[in-house]
Structure prediction request, 107 residues.
Amino acid sequence: MPGEISTPDVQRYGRAWHNYVARRNLVVVLFVGLVPLGALIARLKLSEIVSMSVLAGWIAVYLAGAWWLTQWKCPRCGKTFANRLWTPRCISCGLSKDEVVAVGRGK
Ligand SMILES: [Zn+2]
Prediction:
């Protein structure tokens, strides 16, 4: 039937959503982790150059993770979903993240 969701679509959307969640969670962990990392560095009393290097490295990894999140591909059109963080709809075809979740669950 036209408009019906096929099994490959369900699998593709489900995989895409898992992929998105992994990227998003990594970015959140890297962002939130900056606070305990800063506290740990302060407690260890490292030299200024080592402390700044560790923090700069962490921030570089966070930025790389954030860039990776923005490179997530839309499961419907195959293009980059958004060119910035936390965009609710695909900038190319308008597919929403809620629709990705719904199709991925077979609804
Ligand atoms: Zn799209």
About this structure: The pocket of zinc ion is lined by residues 74, 76-77, 79, 90, 92-93, 95 (CB under 6 Å).
